[in-house]
Design goal:
The protein is mainly alpha-helical and 107 residues long. The chain has three helices and no strands.
C-alpha cells in the first residue's frame, strides 16, 4: 500500500520497508541457493546470476527511496539558501530507473 506523498517531490511512495523486505528475502533465497550450489544443476546455478542482479537493483532502489525519505524528513535542518529540488528530482529519476530495470528482470 502506498504511503503518503513525499511533501517535496509529490510522488506516491511505497513504504521504504517494502523494498528492503523484498531485498532481504531475495538475499536469504540467494544464500540458500549458494549453500546448495554444488548439488544444483546448471539451470539452477544460472538462475543465481539473475537473482544477484535483481538484488542489486532492489538495493539501489532502496537506497534512492531511503535517501529521499531522509532528505524529506530533515528538510528543515538544511540551510535556508539550500534548494533540494534538484536532489529530489535526481533521486526520483534514479528510483524510476531502478523500478524499470527491476521490472525488466522480472518480466
Amino acid at each position: 500500500r502506498p504511503s503518503d506523498r513525499c511533501r517535496l517531490c509529490g510522488t506516491m511512495q511505497m513504504p521504504r520497508s517494502s523494498y528492503h523486505d523484498v531485498r532481504k528475502a531475495g538475499k536469504k533465497v540467494r544464500y540458500l541457493i549458494e549453500f546448495f550450489e554444488p548439488l544444483l544443476g546448471k539451470k539452477q546455478r544460472n538462475g543465481l546470476k539473475g537473482l544477484k542482479r535483481l538484488q542489486k537493483h532492489f538495493g539501489a532502489l532502496n537506497d534512492a527511496v531511503a535517501s529521499r525519505d531522509l532528505l524529506d524528513a530533515n528538510r528543515s535542518s538544511l540551510p535556508a539558501d539550500v534548494d533540494a529540488t534538484s536532489v529530489f528530482g535526481a533521486l526520483k529519476k534514479e528510483q524510476q530507473r531502478q523500478i524499470k530495470a527491476t521490472s525488466k528482470l522480472l518480466g
